[in-house]
Amino acid sequence: MDHQTKDLLAEFGVDAKDLLKYYDIRVLLKKLLTSKVPSDLKRSALKMIIRLYYTARHGAYSTEYEIVHRYIDWITAIPWNTYTQDEVDLEKIRNTLESSHYGLTKVKERILSYMAAVKLKYEKEKKEKADASLVLRDIPVLLFVGLQGVGKTTIAYSIAKALGRRFIKVSLAAFSDVLYLRGKPKNYPDAEPGLIVKALVRTQSMNPVILLDEIEKVSSDPKVRNDVHSALLEIFDPTQNKDFVDKYIDYPIDLSAVFFIATANSLGNLPAALLDRVEIIRFTSYTDEEKIIIGKKYLLPKVLEKSGLDKDKLEIRDDAWPLIVRPMGVDAGIRQLERTLFNIARKVAYKILTKQADRVIITPDNVKEYLPDVGYLG
Q1: 183: phi > 0 → left, psi -120 to 50 → alpha, else beta; which?
Q2: Contact by Cβ (8 Å): 250, 186
């Protein structure tokens, strides 16, 4: 126990030896004191432990203990001052995007132009401060707009991978309360941090790439939608997010090193003030020709691996691909194509395991046999 803690205990008239007699309190105290929690937040949490100690001296304290225990668990789980090392290598970013995504040329060019500007600022700051471990901060917030399945999430993941940052996806669809984002105060029965703090805890990094998915689908309730969008304005604003206060943690958290990427299917429900805070990048639909190349080069190898099929067990002839990439209805992206390929692989696996075939070749003549019942025009 350090002198500061002993002095605080003495300030409140607490005998350190007597406090340490309570095993549960001793465990909480040790967890708090050995953590990287900022000193003033640590002091605030220590006061909670002292109140718990007085409660314990006068009888049962199980309810109070659960509240304090849960709070200390959360504040010690936040990765205070823990950052991954940034790698702002434009060639690596370009290669990562090219190797994981076919097409989307304009999208890739926009992303590379933004990252080039970020790199110039980053290198200048590193030189001025003579700090090789400097962390990228105040990166422009990107908003990817496009229909489902056009590659918004996978592009975001590829950016994180290229930068050497951890990645997490947070869905904002169908929120019923802004407190899911901002955190629920400790006096709530189901009090807990909001999704931003949880994202930091899960990535164990203060500079991850956080993908905020479907921000235009927050809620059908205008009040909730406005509250969430107001919270996003604060989170995205570099002048405010250095001191973001989660209502459960009740302490400023620096989000300036987080790389926020948001997605939306359309801009219809988004306020102008929020759009002013982001850089909009539009994703267009894939053509049939692009889907065929993506299916051959990216999706089929992944499907075969996940299905446990050897490469020589399934062959799809070139003239069968046009019949596979046309699902029922309009499909701007490749999700339906991926589902279709998985359906084909499962049927092929069944035929092989039941000794009906050693390998399967998909042709225009037999493709209907392997396609799902729903999603094929014929």
Answers
A1: left
A2: yes
Helix, strand, coil: what percent of the chain each, to 5? 50, 10, 40
Query: 323 is written with which tokens?
Result: 């019949």
pLDDT digits (tens, 9 = 90+) for 319-370: 999 888 875 445 656 778 888 999 999 999 999 999 898 999 999 999 988 8
What are residue 136's phi and psi, to 5 degrees? Answer: -60, 130
- CB of 184 within 8 A of CB of 192? yes
Smallest CA-to-CA distance from 165 within 114, 202, 208, 199 is with 208
Domain boundaries, the chain: 3-77, 90-282, 288-370
pTM over 0.85: no
Which residue shows structure tokens 């046309």? 326
In this structure, CATH architecture of domain 90-282: 3-Layer(aba) Sandwich (3.40)
The answer to whether the beta carbons of residues 338 and 154 sit under 8 Å apart is no
CATH of domain 288-370: 1.10.8.60
- Two structure tokens written together for 148: 């489902």
Per the DSSP assignment, residues forming a β-bridge with 142 are: 261, 279
Q: How far is CA 10 from CA 4, 23, 126, in A?
A: 10, 20, 45
